[in-house]
Input
Amino acid sequence: MSGKLLIIGFGPGSFEHITKRAREAIGESEVIIGYNTYVDLIAGLLTDQQVVRTGMTEEVSRAQEAVRQAKQGKKVAVISSGDAGVYGMAGLVYEVLMEQGWTREEGVQVEVIPGISAVHSAGSLLGAPIMHDSCTISLSDHLTPWELIAKRVEAAGMADFVIALYNPRSGRRTRQIVETQRILLKYRSPLTPVGIVKSAYRDRQHIVVTTLADMLNHDIGMLTTIIIGNSATKLYDGLMITPRGYQRKYTLGAETQPLKPHQRLKSEAEPWALEQLDEQDWDESMEELDEEDELLEDEVTEIKEPSQLKSSPNLSPSNSLQLAMEALQLVSKGNEEVSFEFDNKLTATQSIFEFAVSPGIANKKLTAAQLCALGEIVGDRGDIEYSPHHQLIVRVQTNNPNQITSELSALGLLLSPIGDVAQIKACDFCNLEKGESIPYAEAIHHRIGNLEVPKELKIGFNGCGMACYGAVQQDIGIVYRKEKFDLFLGGKTVGRNAHAAQPVAEGIEPAELVELVGRIVERYQKEGHPNERFHKFFKRVKEIEGYRHQEMVGFVIENAICGD
Output
């Protein structure tokens, strides 16, 4: 059975602004995939669908899971607020499909269902600020270099666009909106009208109409859309109005117009139009363009290395070659091995190789030779960070990662990938003096260590009942006691509701342990949702290998009486 992907934009979040087709698509879907907040916003439309929800910044996992389930023949809805094609999920889902060789004829069906974008929701609440040419710019530099964002802001300010700013400020990103204001004040009056809309058409909707000079004195966050007027935008009775330009041909307050309908599109009524350029001015403009083209051809012939771009004063800053080269230099951070070939091939060697290093599963001591080798490999090309999981996180620029892994492995170091993999976090077994259970820890590592799982999985292993390395707090905890093993499942080490793992079994025979843990991890790998932590998975499936989940009882903190 052929599956289908329904990529749905459900608008600002209020039910009355969700389109009929979006409602239908949600209703006919078997699986709903979305960011936690978005799932909550449409909860009233859900029935018995399977729901896969993830946190912020986990868009790729959502897109991959949607494609995977659609390939199984299911109807899968990927939801976005606003319009799915404007900073939403539509493009990312298509990118995942393209990566997998999808075609429209033979692959899963895809339907993109439009919604009301934030710029239009905010615009409707502010009056009519987007009546003329406009653009949207996201100020988030997590995926786009800030230098490029700043160029876009500069260009939009210079071109007198009405500008809608998405993702203007977050807890960590505070300078971007300040820099944006500084750039725009070069081209706009400080009194330019600005609208700040938070949570349009949602419960906590908040609207402020202010000026470009005063905009930073108001609350701005990730749920805010900012609309900055152009040079013609007016404030009227608390609303932002951008004229469409009719006053050029119409007298808005008169019943009888000076221009008759048949006169309004004549050339003499449009002296500003391109066709009305003086013929001599047109010829001069074309000559200048010809000269620039000849100059550009000369410069392209002479360019041999990317570094020569900065020393070519005659190269037009607006030509696409220079912009492409500047972008390449930015991405490669000045790497000497980056080259540009004029057969349309870009070759960027050397990338960042990131991995974890430890002396072993049980051993916690690094030798001088191992430390020296690490220092020599990292040098001034990378850095080393110590993690709370008794590992060194190494990041180094290289075009030959295999050579690095071979050298370090030959010195007896244990190397592990970074990310959503299963890893053993074992104690040092009292400086290896209590080593009876070490072979089982190492066997578990060989069985499922570094296995790719839905979310980072830590398997704590302690060699005695003291459990001083905190095995019982990990996703899976194993404690060696009285020559047998105790098993704990579903710990949560951080957060407001952090809790120890649930004790599920005592006295597991050593011969059974490795395969038992392997089956638990492999089921999590197979059935876990993208980015679903193990304790949530255990709670959802209710039973693993005969061990039933039990609700953890949280602490209740009474409010203190004043004066006590």
Notes: The mean pLDDT is 84.
